[in-house]
Design goal:
Subunit structure: Homodimer.
Pathway: Aromatic compound metabolism; phenylpropanoid biosynthesis
Strand content: 15-25%
Structural class: alpha/beta
Helix content: 10-25%
Bound molecules: NADP nicotinamide-adenine-dinucleotide phosphate, zinc ion
Number of helices: 13
Radius of gyration: 20 Å
Cofactor: Zn(2+)
Family: Belongs to the zinc-containing alcohol dehydrogenase family.
Shape: globular
Distance between the termini: 35 Å
Protein name: Probable cinnamyl alcohol dehydrogenase
Length: about 425
């Protein structure tokens, strides 16, 4: 389900009715369905699901080695499974690098009550094509490619028709999703050595980009780039606020600067000020908990991208917008944000959500990154460090994205 809304209201996640059913939590929605958020009983689909999984795995696709979380401790450990037998339009990809998004952390810890264990996380994937089905037209063995947050959509609804496949009700997430077109099997993500995906959800990585620094762009990059394009937050001279200087936020700063904007970071971490200005090119840096600093910036921003992963007050952020300014919420705290009418009505301000970006946006974002030499700031790790990395991510101790050297950790999948 889409996470696109004009106005956030103070109720638990307000996803469309039925989101918890066939294409519900973990399947269509990256976030919890309302019923999961309210912790109502789970649908009795687990036996059926186990059978579907068994059926899928008996199909004898390529053996894969990944790391999976088995329960809400979130602890990851080695996990063997099979990829599906490739179809005509499928591309087989040897995974080289996979970023660790905070969404992976939310999911393995079951923050959103939608985890379908075992969960193999990972949706910021860069790899090399090792095989293509007979109907594949856009890729060949040896191509360097990326796979992001989703690997399927219905391809017949209004959203898909408009190229907004990221808002398709039948979206199939790359990890912890339900693969409707392939027996309803749960999807396993990029913390694994091999992936099979339809070519329609695979993007080309432009030459010249460092592959480890590109992996986070497949989710973090497109999640900020897409709403910046949609809301006109890509125009030189405009003033952009970026709330939360993490994986998403630091890439938003880079895109904002590449668009020629004035960029102000709004952060809880004073220790990030120097890097934000000297290394990432931000123009200004506000501490969100410093009332004087926030007051001095009232009414100065054309747009704000809010990437914060935990609950936080948004009224002080909305005060930073000019009249008719636009806030875009991309962070996904499990606790609902509060939106008083007075924070948006007098200034005619907008609050929108954004769910990653379409495949088309993702390709355009990569081309833009290639042209402007944009990559994430990364700490490259081996897979056996992943549990420590998750702990550090939870403590806001990463500058600014962990990326797993998957091929260097799990050997080579042919
Ligand atoms: P991240 O690297 O952990 O960054 C989140 C940042 O939020 C932190 O660096 C921190 O920045 C700030 N923060 C953390 N706790 C906070 C608190 N209690 N109050 C205020 N600020 C706090 O996470 P990420 O990978 O960028 O993801 C951010 C969020 O976006 C997650 O909820 C994730 O699930 C979501 N997400 C959504 C989409 C989408 O399509 N909408 C896509 C990807 C991710 P400072 O230190 O600067 O304060
Ligand atoms: Zn992500």
């Amino acid at each position: 389900m889409s996470y696109h809304c004009r106005v956030l209201v103070p109720v638990p996640f307000h996803y469309p009715p039925g989101a918890g059913a066939r294409v519900g939590a973990g399947a269509g929605s990256p976030f919890p369905s309302a019923s999961r958020a309210l912790r109502l009983p789970r649908p009795r689909a687990s036996v059926e699901k186990r059978e579907q999984v068994a059926a899928m795995e008996e199909q004898g696709g390529q053996a894969a080695l990944g790391w999976a979380a088995r329960d809400d401790s979130g602890v990851l450990s080695p996990y063997s499974f099979s990829r599906r037998v490739p179809k005509d339009d499928d591309v087989t990809i040897k995974v080289l690098y996979c970023g660790i998004c905070h969404t992976d952390l939310h999911v393995i810890k079951n923050d959103w009550r939608n985890a379908m264990y075992p969960v193999v996380p990972g949706h910021e994937i860069v790899g090399v094509v090792t095989g293509v089905g007979g109907g594949v037209t856009r890729f060949k063995a040896g191509d360097t490619v990326g796979v992001g947050y989703f690997v399927g959509s219905c391809r017949s609804c209004d959203s898909c028709g408009k190229g907004d496949d990221n808002y398709c009700a039948g979206i199939v997430l790359t990890s912890n999703g339900v693969d409707h077109a392939h027996g309803g099997a749960p999807t396993r993500g990029g913390f694994s050595d091999v992936l099979v995906a339809s070519e329609h959800y695979v993007v080309r990585v432009p030459d010249g980009l460092a592959l480890d620094r590109t992996a986070p762009l497949l989710c973090a990059g497109v999640t900020v780039y897409s709403p910046m394009m949609r809301h006109g937050l890509n125009e030189p001279g405009k003033h952009l606020g970026v709330v939360g200087l993490g994986g998403l936020g630091h890439v938003a700063v880079k895109f904002g600067k590449a668009f020629g904007m004035k960029v102000t970071v709004i952060s809880t971490s004073a220790s990030k000020r120097q890097e934000a200005i000297e290394n990432l090119g931000a123009d200004e840096f506000l501490i969100s908990r410093d009332e004087d600093q926030m007051k001095a910036a009232t009414g100065t921003m054309d747009g704000i991208i809010d990437t914060v992963s935990a609950w936080h007050p948004i009224t002080p952020l909305l005060a930073l917008l000019k009249p008719l300014g636009q806030m875009v919420v991309v962070g996904a705290p499990s606790k609902p944000l509060e939106l008083p009418a007075y924070a948006i009505v007098p200034g005619g301000k907008g609050v929108a959500g954004n769910n990653v970006g379409s495949v088309r946006d993702c390709q355009a974002m990569l081309e833009f990154a290639g042209k402007h030499g944009i990559g994430a700031e990364v700490e490259v790790i081996k897979m056996d460090y992943v549990n420590t990395a998750m702990e550090r991510l939870e403590k806001n101790d990463v500058r600014y994205r962990f990326v797993i050297d998957v091929a260097g950790s799990l050997g080579s999948a042919a």
